Amino acid sequence: MQTKLETQEMNGVAPNLYERRWSPLLVVISGPSGVGKDTLLQRLKERGFDFAFVVTMTTRPRRESEVDGRDYFFVSHATFTQMIESDELLEYSKVYGDYKGIPKDQVRHAWASGKDVIMRIDVQGAAKIRAIVSNAVTIFLVPDSEEELVRRLTERKTETPDGLTRRIATAREEMKRLCEFDYVVVNPANQVDQAVDTIISIIAAEHCRVERTPTCL
Question: Is the separation of the CB atoms in 170 and 96 below 8 Å?
Answer without folding.
Answer: yes
